[in-house]
């Protein structure tokens, strides 16, 4: 949680991150761009969050469910 909080704090003064977040906030409500994609200690201090994360990992984190994208010139 501290590592995620540190990443969040690094983003606060980053103009590119601010622009990206603004784009997300202005997008449609059901758009994936509108989802919250980084947390801080306030948003991560929830009851049983570790258990929920491990449950998500065990349920969905599998090579047969993943896709890879390569993009280049």
Question: What this model shows, in words?
Answer:
The protein has one domain. It is an all-alpha fold. The longest helix is centred in the first third of the chain and has 12 residues, at 15-26. The protein has helices at 2-11, 15-26, 41-44, 49-60. It is built from four helices and no strands. The model has no long low-confidence stretch (mean pLDDT 87). 52% of the residues lie in helices and 0% in strands.
Percent helix among the residues? 40-55%
Sheet/helix structural class = mainly alpha
The number of helical segments is 4
Major sheet: none
State the distance separating the first and last CA atoms: 37 Å
In quaternary terms, these chains amount to single chain
Beta-strand content: under 5%
Overall 3D shape: extended
Succession of helices and strands: HHHH
Number of domains: 1
The average pLDDT value, as a whole number, equals: 87
Taking pLDDT < 50 over at least 5 consecutive residues as the criterion, the unreliable ranges are none
Radius of gyration: 15 Å
Kindly state the number of beta strands. Answer: 0
């Amino acid at each position: 949680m501290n590592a995620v909080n540190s990443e969040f704090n690094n983003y606060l003064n980053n103009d590119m991150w601010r622009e990206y977040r603004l784009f997300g906030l202005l997008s449609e409500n059901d758009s994936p761009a509108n989802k919250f994609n980084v947390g801080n200690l306030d948003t991560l201090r929830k009851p049983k969050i570790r258990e929920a994360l491990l449950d998500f990992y065990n349920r969905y984190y599998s090579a047969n469910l993943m896709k890879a994208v390569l993009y280049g010139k």
